[in-house]
Structure formats: C-alpha cells, structure tokens
C-alpha cells in the first residue's frame, strides 16, 4: 500500500507540473516507516551508495553505464534527489514486474543522509569521492560531514567494500582496516596546478593533526601526501589514472597493476577522479575490468552537469556550481578551452534550500586568479543573489562595463544570446538555477532530448 500510494502521489505531482521528487518518498514513509529497509532487502545484489562533496552525480552516471554493460539492471535516484526521501522514492518508483526488477540499487547519497541510509540500506559498497567545504549552513564544519559518512559506513555489513579516494586524506582515513577497501587516485599528471590561493580544506593528518607534507598536489588538498610526524601516508591505489592526453582525448588507467588505454572526451581534471571512482566501484561490484573499460568508450556526461548544446550559432556549455573547489575546476575547464571563439560566462546564483542558503562561499572561489587567466571576457550574472555575485566580480577586478546584472534568468538568457551572436557561452548555475535554465531551454524547444539524470 505504501508503494501504491507513493506512486499515485508521484503521478499526481507530475500531473500538476510540480515534478517534486520528495513527495512519493514522504508518502511511502508515512504509511510504512520500514519501507526502505524492506524493499532494499529484497534486492539480489544489494545497494551501492556514492557519497562525498563533489562528483556524486557524474560518478553515478558512469557506474550506471558500467552496470548496463555488465547486464545488471540497477535502480537509481534522480540527480539531486539524494536525501532519504529521494532514496525512498527511487525504490517506490522502480518497476514491479519481475522481468524488469532491478538486481541492485545505485544511489547517490547526501553526506548528512549517510547515517540513516547506512542503517536502513545496509549497503554492500560505499564509494566516497572527496570532502570539501560545501554549504556551511547545512553541514557545519567539515569534520561533521566526515563524521556523518563514518557513521554511515558503520552500518555496512562486515563483508561490504569501501571505495575510497586515496588522494584525499580525510577520505583515505575512513579505512580502518576492518573492511576491504579499494583505493583510487591520480598519478602526478602534467597539468598539476599548485597554487597557494587554491582553497585548501584538509591539509592536516587525520590521525595526529600534524601538517601533511605534499609531494604532488592535483588541486586543493587532493594529491600525494605523507605525515612527517606519525608516518601515515597516502595508500597505494588499486585504480590509478596514470596519464592524460587531453589533445588526443586519451587516458591511461592502471587497474591492479595492469595499464589500459581509454578514449576519454570529458574535460576537467576532476572528472578523472570521477572516472577512477566509477571504475573502482565497478570492481567492488565484481564486474571484470574488460567489461568496465569496454562500457566507457562512448561515455558522455548527463545533461546539465557539463553538457553542451547549440543555440543557433552559440555553443552553450552547462555546468553546475555549488562550492569553491567545484567552481574553480569549472573555471579551469573554461580556461583550458581557449579556442572556443568569442566567449562569455553566465553565473546564476540562487539561495534556496537546495542551493545552500549561505552564499559566502563565493568569496572562497579563486576569481582573482581566473579573471586574470581568462583575460577580457563578458560576464552575465543572474539569479536571486545576482548582486552578491556582481560584487564578488568587482572585488576580483572585473570592470563594471563587462558585467551584465539581471536577476531574472529568462531575461538574462535573452540578453546573453543576443549580445553573443556566435561563440561560446558557459552557463554556471547553482542547483535550482540549473532547473530554471533547463525549463527555459525545454520551453524554447532548444533541449528536445533533455533527460534528467
Ligand atoms: Zn600523522
């Protein structure tokens, strides 16, 4: 009954155009509080959770692709619906018929939801991408976030597997030796950018609190480290991205000592971490490396996370921004893509609950560096907190004549598309602003193949 009424609620909410993803979960849990525990315990292969600050959605999208290639049908939650209600809805909305029934649940899970998700879902695999300072008002300090994830891991069965980022000290330290761990990481790549202004979240040893020593740093606090005091060091990764040739769109990845070449068309250093996390998750789910690599040949990211589309003669790139490190990485991607003709950047900042209500993190984005690196470029800023963003750019040294401020997103899109007749427009929205942009593009018939997730 809980499932039936949840589906009915979901159907009614879609019909009324709200498309709310939390209502079915809410209804199901009200009727039967044990619904998630019950439904998940019926899955033949159990549940895999993906958590961490950045990269959950992209990593989950890559793992879904790997699972599809291996012939395992998985149910999953919609992008961003990663609180307990969203996870519950993923189960109540999955097909009932035995022929279509999923073997496995693959769920991107908010860090703060991990204790409850761990307890109810008893995950078989937990993948942790990274820990960065994100949405301070919701989570408080980074150590609180880490503690949430640790509690989630405690809910795992003893035979469960942890998939951990070896290059992030806080993530690597989640391995206590009680369970099997698969570590992933990056080799020292040529594109290493080591700047002191780069937001640093965790540079202290999680065991003794001393300053960590870095031999190589990929970005922020991710890199090759060692504690000079207690001797704790980055674990050796079983899945290692060895090299990346961006021009030829090739990546060399070492899996349990064996090197493989893979064509990889997704820009951004941070996506190499998502790739490594997904490959490791596949291994933890006992999928053979050959199947994993074969499934990734034609991988393209989900719409909205970094998709590009043509609007007349303007190429539009969309990438979600939600915290300083992610924002820096997206701007690095824009800077890398210098041959894109005339370029403009649109930043859309909302401060609704799903975006994070505290926008002070904008001050931790390294705009000073990027404004210089990008050279003269037009900025369009919009959303509820457009003015905060405009002030931030002003302090970063952008001339006022180069910034168009318009809170109304549709109006700003019109303005940008008429100002920029051809070239590239990078649209960088927070979560609810992204939904608004998608809605606008769909309404204008510009994103006909739009698919969520
Ligand atoms: Zn130490």
Can you walk through the features of this model?
The structure is a single chain. The protein has 453 residues and is an alpha/beta fold. The chain folds into two domains: 213 residues, UDP-N-acetylmuramoyl-L-alanine:D-glutamate ligase; 136 residues, Mur ligase, C-terminal domain (Protein-Tyrosine Phosphatase, Chain A). Helix content is 35%, strand content 20%. It has 16 helices and 17 strands. The strands form three sheets. The chain has a nine-stranded mixed beta sheet with strand order 2-3-1-4-5-6-9-10-11, sandwiched between helices. The C terminus is likely disordered.
Task: List the keywords.
453 residues; alpha/beta; UDP-N-acetylmuramoyl-L-alanine:D-glutamate ligase; Protein-Tyrosine Phosphatase, Chain A; 9-stranded mixed beta sheet; 6-stranded mixed beta sheet; 16 helices; 17 strands; 20% strand; disordered C terminus; binds zinc ion
Question: Helices, strands, pairings?
Answer:
Layout: H1 2-15, H2 23-31, H3 35-41, E1 47-51, H4 56-70, E2 74-76, H5 84-92, E3 104-108, H6 114-121, E4 125-128, H7 136-139, H8 142-154, E5 161-165, H9 169-172, E6 180-186, E7 213-219, E8 222-226, E9 239-245, E10 250-255, E11 258-263, H10 270-284, H11 289-295, E12 308-311, E13 314-318, H12 324-336, E14 343-348, H13 367-374, E15 378-382, H14 386-395, E16 403-405, H15 409-419, E17 423-429, H16 431-443
Parallel strand pairs: 1-3, 1-4, 2-3, 4-5, 5-6, 6-9, 13-17, 14-15, 14-17, 15-16
Antiparallel strand pairs: 7-8, 9-10, 10-11, 12-13
Helix pairs in contact: 1-2, 2-5, 3-5, 4-10, 4-11, 6-8, 12-13
The structure holds zinc ion.
The site of zinc ion (ZN) has 8 residues, from loops.
């Amino acid at each position: 009954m809980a499932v039936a009424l949840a589906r009915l609620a979901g159907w009614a909410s879609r019909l009324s155009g709200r498309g709310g993803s939390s209502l079915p979960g809410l209804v199901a849990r009200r009727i039967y509080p044990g619904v998630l525990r019950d439904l998940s315990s019926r899955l033949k292969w159990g549940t895999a959770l993906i958590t961490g600050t950045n990269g959950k959605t992209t990593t989950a999208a890559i793992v879904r692709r790997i699972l599809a290639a291996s012939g395992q049908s998985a149910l999953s939650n919609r992008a961003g619906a990663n609180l307990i209600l969203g996870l519950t809805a993923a189960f109540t909305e999955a097909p009932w018929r035995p022929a279509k029934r999923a073997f496995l649940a693959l769920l991107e899970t908010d860090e703060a939801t991990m204790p409850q998700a761990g307890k109810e879902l008893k995950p078989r695999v937990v993948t942790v991408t990274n820990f960065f300072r994100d949405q301070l008002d919701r989570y408080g300090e980074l150590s609180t976030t880490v503690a949430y994830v640790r509690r989630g891991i405690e809910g795992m069965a003893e035979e469960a597997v942890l998939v951990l980022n070896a290059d992030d000290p806080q993530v690597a330290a989640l391995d206590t030796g009680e369970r099997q761990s698969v570590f992933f990481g990056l080799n020292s790549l040529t594109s290493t950018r080591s700047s002191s202004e780069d937001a640093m979240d965790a540079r202290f040893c999680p065991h003794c609190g001393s300053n960590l020593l870095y031999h190589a740093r990929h970005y922020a606090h991710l890199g090759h480290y060692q504690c000079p005091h207690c001797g704790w060091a980055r674990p050796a990764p079983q899945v290692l991205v060895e090299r990346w040739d961006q021009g030829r769109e090739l990546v060399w990845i070492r899996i349990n000592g064996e090197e493989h070449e893979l064509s990889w068309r997704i820009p951004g250093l941070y996506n190499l971490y998502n790739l490594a996390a997904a490959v490791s998750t596949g291994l933890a789910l006992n999928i053979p490396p050959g199947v994993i690599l074969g499934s990734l040949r034609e991988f393209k990211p989900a719409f909205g996370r970094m998709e590009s589309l043509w609007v007349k003669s303007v190429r539009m790139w969309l990438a979600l921004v939600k915290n300083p490190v992610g924002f820096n990485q997206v701007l690095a991607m824009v800077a890398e893509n210098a041959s894109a003709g005339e370029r403009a950047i649109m930043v859309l900042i909302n401060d609704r609950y799903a975006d994070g209500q505290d926008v002070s993190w904008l001050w931790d984005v390294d705009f000073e560096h990027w404004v210089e690196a990008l050279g003269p470029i037009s900025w369009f800023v919009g959303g509820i907190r457009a003015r905060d963003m405009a002030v931030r750019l002003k302090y970063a040294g952008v001339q006022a004549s180069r910034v168009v401020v318009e809170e109304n997103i549709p109006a700003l899109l019109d303005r940008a598309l008429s100002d920029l007749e051809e070239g590239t427009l990078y649209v960088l929205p927070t979560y609810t602003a992204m939904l608004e942009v998608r809605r606008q593009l769909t309404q204008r018939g510009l994103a006909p193949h739009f698919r969520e997730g």
